[in-house]
Amino acid sequence: MATQPALQSWTYAEYARLPDDGNRYEIIGGELHVTPSPRPQHQHVLVPMIEAMGPFVRKHELGTIYPGPVDVLLATTDYLVPDLVFVRADRSDIVTDRGVESAPDLVVEVISPSSVMRDRGLKRERYARFGVPLYWIVDLKLRHIEVYRLAEDPDGPAEIVTDTLVWQPIPNGPSLTISVPFIVGPVSRRS
Asked: What is the pTM of this model?
């Protein structure tokens, strides 16, 4: 009979003592993961996303968009730092001085070569396990957004969106139509 290794627990104080040296430190499934700080192109994609989502969220008083780095504290085995999160207004009490202390309503990760496997695999699994209902992965290389509806089907395939993404942050609430090319940039034409 095989046994699973016990997940290492981390106190928030231990996590908070990790160096502030420009690297991204995350505890995922009890293990420490360190990645370099994002490249400019990675961060640049967040600007149009916030420009599209921010005014809509404020106009309809739906909640708050938090661009990363922001700590998402899911358990003593999982302290993640996504690129962007959304928390509905009726759940604003999960946001504290330490970070977002429960599953946000939307998590967005912009993949990079060093994070692609972790974002599509381990992080997706952890977000699903802890109740994140909606997870987007922005892939600049493939010029699309992968939409995972974790609340509906935690193990289901992504919806690959290349043209228009429709986001409805609150059930039966208003919807926002987002141009994916506006987020990921136009396709470059090479001769």
From this structure: 0.90
CA 36 to CA 96: how far, in whole Å? Answer: 26
Residue type, 125: E
Q: Cα–Cα distance between 134 and 154 in angstroms, integer?
A: 10
Domains and CATH numbers, the chain: 12-184 (3.90.1570.10)
Note the pLDDT tens digit of each residue in 170-188. Answer: 989 999 999 999 999 866 5
CB 146 within 8 Å of CB 160:
yes
Core vs surface per residue 9-21: b (16+ CB within 10 A) or e: ebeeeebeeeeee
- Positive or negative torsion for Cα 2, 5, 135, 60: positive
Q: How far apart (Å, rounded) are the C-alpha atoms in residues 156 and 172? A: 23
